[in-house]
Amino acid sequence: MGIFLTLLIKIIPLYLIILLGYVAGRYLKAQKETVARLLIFIIAPAVIFNSVLTTKLSVSVLALPILFFSLCCLICLATFSIAKKIWSDPTKNILAFTSGTGNTGYFGLPVAIALFGPNIAGLVVISTLGFILYENSLGFYITARGNHSARESLKRVIKLPTIYAFLIGVIINLLGVKFGQGYFDFANLFRGAYSVLGMMLIGMGLASITDYKFDFKFIGATFLTKFVIWPLIISLIIFVDLNTIRLFNSEIYRVMILMSIVPLAANTVAFATELNAHPEKASMAVLISTIIALFYIPLVASLFLS
After folding, report:
1. Is 90 exceeded by the pLDDT of residue 152?
2. What confidence category does residue 275 fall into, taking pLDDT thresholds of 50, 70 and 90?
3. Measured over all CA atoms, what is the biggest interatomic distance in the chain, rounded to whole angstroms?
4. Is the pLDDT reported for residue 176 higher than 80?
5. What is the 3-state secondary structure (H, E, C) of the chain?
6. pLDDT of the residue at 24
7. Domains in the chain, number
8. Is residue 279 very low, low, confident or very high in pLDDT (cuts 50, 70, 90)?
9. Which domain holds residue 58?
10. pLDDT > 70 fraction of the chain, expressed in percent and rounded
11. Distance between CA atoms of residues 95 and 272, nearest Å
12. Domain containing 176 — which CATH number?
């Protein structure tokens, strides 16, 4: 109960940021399209570059983003193959995208720090790399295919700067190039903007909704993959690893579980907005999943992460 209440209190400020985003969108007429582009094309690449640059790279560390990237792609493709039999509009595309990822950055990183302390931030960021690479490759492509041809979608993927930021960060890291304190002070500003604007984007997306009818089929499908299938798959992987090669330790297990129970990705709203793939429907699903996570994450944490 102590962990539950402690984490619950730590999470509440994130919901206040969502509320501020709603106020900004509804009453200050802030444009969610502008924020979405800032996150996708400027802030996310800066965060990912700095994260790769400042992390000690090794085979065991790189196994985490590779694992999550692979899972994201598999779940996305499996969901898309089923969804296209149910929906004929871009709903199937945004469902496949959001099923393959989660709010590991905007939401998961501050929650992880609240639960495990700042020393765990490195592992969380490295894990998040897998999700970000998925979102900016196959995930973006699948979403774009809702309203664009395969050729146009591929062109949009190639234009995304996050992948290049990751590769450049790896190269500079391996070369051992050192940066001064001034750089790190500057780079830390982007991490704060990443979390704040990402959470505000959810509220801004809600502020633009004019029709509040629930698509129960869509929301039910997203919740099934996010809150049931993801935790089950991660639990199975941990069970197998624990009884075989033991590639990961208990600290990494905790990070893996947390990554599997975060709510729907706020980037679902960003990408749906950028690609005009039902952003209102995406915003509603993300909001409800984020509300559920307010209690779901502390509950799981108190049971399995203590």
Report:
1. no
2. low
3. 56
4. yes
5. CHHHHHHHHHHHHHHHHHHHHHHHHHCCCCCHHHHHHHHHHHHHHHHHHHHHHCCCCCHHHHHHHHHHHHHHHHHHHHHHHHHCCCCCCCHHHHHHHHHCCCCHHHHHHHHHHHHHCHHHHHHHHHHHHHHHHHHHHHHHHHHHCCCCCHHHHHHHHHHCCHHHHHHHHHHHHHHCCCCCHHHHHHHHHHHHHHHHHHHHHHHHHHHCCCCCCCCHHHHHHHHHHHHHHHHHHHHHHHHHHHCCCCCCCHHHHHHHHHHHHCCCCCHHHHHHHHHCCCHHHHHHHHHHHHHHHHHHHHHHHHHHCC
6. 94
7. 1
8. confident
9. 2-304
10. 92
11. 10
12. 1.20.1530.20
Q: State the pLDDT at residue 47.
A: 85
End-to-end CA distance of the chain: 10
d(CA 293, CA 300) in angstroms, rounded, equals 10
Structure-token pair, residue 195: 């979390």
Enumerate residues 6+ apart whose C-beta is below 8 A from 64: 123, 126, 127, 129, 130, 252, 255, 256
**Token pair in block for residue 290:** 């984020």
Residues in the chain: 306
Contact status, residue 189 vs residue 103, Cβ threshold 8 Å? no
Write the CB contacts of 142 (distance below 8 Å, at least 6 apart in sequence). 76, 80, 93, 96, 97
Residue 55: which pLDDT band, with cuts at 50, 70 and 90?
A: confident
The mean pLDDT of the chain is 84
